[in-house]
Specification:
With 437 residues, the chain is an alpha+beta fold. Helix content is 31%, strand content 23%. The strands form seven sheets. Strands 1, 2, 5, 6, 7, 8 and 21 form a seven-stranded mixed β-sheet that branches. A four-stranded antiparallel β-sheet has the order 12-13-11-15, covered by helices on one side. The chain has a two-stranded antiparallel sheet with strand order 3-4. β3 and β4 (64-65) form a beta hairpin. The structure holds flavin-adenine dinucleotide (FAD). The site of flavin-adenine dinucleotide has 37 residues, from α1, β6 and α10.
Length: 437
């Protein structure tokens, strides 16, 4: 890094080091830009590490691969370094944490961990700098381009870009989940039992019995669990569901963590007292970050809609595909309130969903792109976040090199570069408007 921790300079600064942020940084650094990630937690990965979220979903549709590029590179680096901690699309979050450090080293990406972005400095239509806070105290980071990959559109909101939260009619967001891992499980006994029971009669009666007995607000209907590659006696659970928590309100978030951990303690009892092979199981770890499925998203130059997803809409300025369902975890209680598969296998995500015309040098990537509540319920999965990160990082690098703005960069150059770097954009002709290649 250039100066001391209080006054840093880079070409491109990525705010938030989740899967969208690291992907944006890889692409920016690969293009030769001096790149810095600022991350409030103590490791990269966001939900994939501090949220214990895996596997990668929505990579294939109807047998066709929809997401490639930086996702492939991340998976390959994971396999090269931790061969026992990864299967095709599932991984050990701890191995992912180390893999992302290795990737940052490979690309000489500067990382500022344990550091909050607290404010920004605007100069007319551009972000001139971000203010930060960490153990050194308050500091400032100046750069030519910025990418908001905070998941919550923190920086876009500070820059005055209009944002929306939740459903149009009442602002309610999808339910959140704090994932946890249990150890000392005989997974050979536990998993078949859990899956069979889920198919046959579900978990409602068991969960309701324990909710009453221990006075906790249980809203799960299933006990979704995943094996963790390389850990034979561990399962990671995609529960408990909590509602009414605001992912951009500090007090509300604190309540969310405490409520979820109260339920997790009851879930550990349920496991020990009911599930074969779990008599001596224990809570191995609880996610450091609450699983916020939805908070702020920007109102950008184009707003991706639920209909675009359902119809499998294609765009002339597509930067990636997206093929997951509209997967809405009921904001008001139990169940998944809508689940519609995209017709035609996948929809495109247009470049215009990654910026607002109001700010010249700021892009968004990942969970806070410009989309409706319904469209985000599909585009929020990690591979799509990685793909929008790759697009935002590549676009910012082009703007940096050509001294232009987010809305004025040459989109065919962006799309060509993305495909050259392994991204999958269907229908793209690499020779479009250029001499035969
Ligand atoms: C419970 C749950 C289960 C899921 N299951 C799956 C699944 O099985 N498969 C799948 O593919 N997807 C799944 N998803 C979706 C997916 O995990 C997320 O939508 C995706 O990882 C979001 O990536 P992101 O990089 O946009 O945001 P995040 O992963 O949230 O990363 C944002 C980063 O920014 C940092 N940050 C935020 N604000 C600041 C600030 N002001 N200053 C500095 N840093 C900041 C955060 O600490 C974080 O590291 C799930 C999501 C949840 C919540």
């Amino acid at each position: 890094m250039d100066a001391n921790a209080h006054n840093l300079v880079a070409d491109i600064v990525v705010l938030g080091g989740g899967m969208a942020g690291i992907s944006a940084a890889i692409s920016a650094a690969r293009a030769g830009c001096k790149t810095l990630i600022i991350e409030r937690r103590t490791s990269l990965g966001g939900m994939a590490t501090t949220g214990l979220v895996m596997p990668f979903l929505g990579v294939f549709s109807k047998g066709r691969k929809i997401i490639g590029g930086n996702l492939d590179y991340i998976l390959q680096t994971l396999k090269d370094n931790f061969p026992f901690s990864v299967t095709k699309l599932a991984f050990d979050p701890e191995a992912m944490r180390h893999t992302l450090d290795i990737i940052a080293d490979n690309y000489q990406i500067d990382i500022l961990l344990d550091t909050w972005v607290t404010d920004i400095v605007m100069r007319s239509n551009t972000v001139a700098a971000v203010k930060i806070y960490n153990k050194s105290g308050a500091g400032i980071v100046t750069a030519r381009q910025f990418i908001d990959a905070t998941g919550d559109a923190d920086i876009a909101c500070m820059a005055g870009i209009p944002c929306k939260v939740g459903r149009d009619n009442d602002g309610k967001t999808q339910a959140y989940t704090l994932r946890f891992m249990m150890g000392n499980i005989d997974a050979n006994q536990a998993q078949p039992w859990l899956n069979e029971r889920d198919k046959e009669k579900g978990f409602l009666d068991l969960l309701e019995t324990y909710a009453k007995r221990y006075h906790v607000p249980i809203l799960d209907m299933h006990f979704q669990n995943f094996e963790v590659p390389g850990r034979k006696d561990v399962l990671v659970f995609n529960v408990p569901r909590i509602i009414g928590i605001d992912g951009i309100d500090g007090c509300s978030l604190s309540e969310g963590y405490r409520r979820a951990r109260r339920i997790i303690r009851v879930y550990a009892r349920i496991m020990r007292e009911n599930v074969p092979g779990c008599a001596h199981a224990y809570i191995l770890s609880t996610a450091e970050s609450l699983g916020v499925r939805e908070s702020r998203r920007i109102v950008g130059s184009y707003i991706l809609t639920g209909d675009d997803v359902i119809q499998g809409k294609k765009f002339a300025d597509a930067v990636c595909g997206n093929c997951w369902w509209i997967d809405i975890h009921n904001p008001q209680g139990k169940g998944v309130s809508e689940m519609v598969g995209p017709k035609g296998g996948h929809n495109d995500i247009p470049y215009r969903a990654l910026f607002s015309d109001q700010v010249d040098n700021l892009w968004v990537a990942g969970r806070c792109i410009s989309a409706t509540h319904e469209a985000l319920a599909s585009a929020r999965i990690m591979p799509t976040c990685i793909a929008t990160g790759q697009a935002a990082g590549t676009a910012a690098a082009i703007a940096n090199q050509k001294n232009t703005t987010a809305s004025l960069i040459d989109i065919s150059e962006l799309r060509r570069k993305l495909v050259q770097d392994g991204a999958i954009i269907t229908g793209i002709n690499l020779c479009d408007g250029h001499p035969p290649c």
